[in-house]
Amino acid sequence: MRFPSVVGPELAGVIDLPEDEVRGWGLFAHGFTLGKDSPAASRVCKQLAREGIGMLRFDNLGIGDSDGDWGDGSFTVKVQDTVRAAAFMAERGTPVDLLVGHSWGGAAALAAAREMPGLRALATIAAPVDPSHVERQYDSVLDRVLSEGSHEWFVGGRTLVLKRAFVEDVRKAHLRDRIGELNLPLLVAHSPTDSTVDIDNAAEIFQEARHPRSFISLEGADHLLTARGQAQRAAHIISAWADQYLDEPRP
Fold first, then answer.
1. For 177, phi and psi rounded to 5 degrees?
2. How is the chain split into domains, by residue range?
């Protein structure tokens, strides 16, 4: 299925459907350049669907099967397209109960949640408290991007164009106030051995959030949840935690 990005091009998504009783509907925001078919996105969503929560996972601008140029995106666009995805789900009669974000997508989920009417619960996995954490991934080309306006960046086996506007937008994104203003149950999941986004980020997110808030340590998991069974375990934990909120009347 496809729906338009806030900047125009169509985004491609997949809904993992429960085979039996539907407990609720959810939306997954993938990591920085990962896409809907990355291990974290696909395995978490498929496991949640097996446990009765239908999940939409979609490719952000210029990623995977989505149209457009990745370089025309930004953190702001990612947040707005996450909100747009939730609106798409509502329009098809399956409004989003649960929002799950992995890595940079977790930061986007924290920023987008308050713009999703009816959302019941939010879970982050390995999320940074500061979206500009991603600068570590493109620091080798950062100076040229800022001086020249854009520069090619090779990542994940492909070449993307990183633009100055993207960098500046990320630097202006501040999450702490938004986390503190969340009026939602929040689950913060993070591995103590995450070498990409340190677990101190989880501690800061947890400290900024209001109750009800929960923290779960994903012992043994790597940042991308590629180790066997780790994504499914994270999904099972999220499913069990969210159960009490899925039965509540919709706000």
1. -65, -40
2. 2-135+175-246
Distances in Å between the Cα of 50 and the Cα atoms of 115, 174, 198, 202 are 28, 35, 30, 27
Q: At 14, give phi and psi (nearest 5°).
A: -130, 140
Phi-psi category of residue 56: left, alpha or beta, with phi > 0 → left and psi -120 to 50 → alpha: beta
pLDDT digits 0-9 by tens, 159-216: 878 899 999 999 999 899 899 999 999 999 999 999 999 999 999 999 999 999 999 9
Superfamily grouping for domain 2-135+175-246: Alpha/Beta hydrolase fold, catalytic domain (3.40.50.1820)
- Report pLDDT digits (tens) over 151-166: 887 877 778 788 999 9
Rg (CA), the chain: 17
Q: Which residue has the tokens 């696909």?
A: 42
Q: Rounded distance, CA 72 to CA 68, Å? A: 8
Averaged pLDDT for residues 78-86: 98
Q: Is 176 exposed, middle or buried (0-12, 13-18, 19+ CB in 10 A)?
A: middle
Q: Record the pTM.
A: 0.95
Is the pLDDT at 61 greater than 60? The verdict is yes
Cα separation of 153 and 160, whole Å? Answer: 5
For residue 251, is pLDDT > 60? Answer: no
Distance, in Å, from the CA atom of 164 to the CA atom of 149, rounded to the nearest integer, reads 5
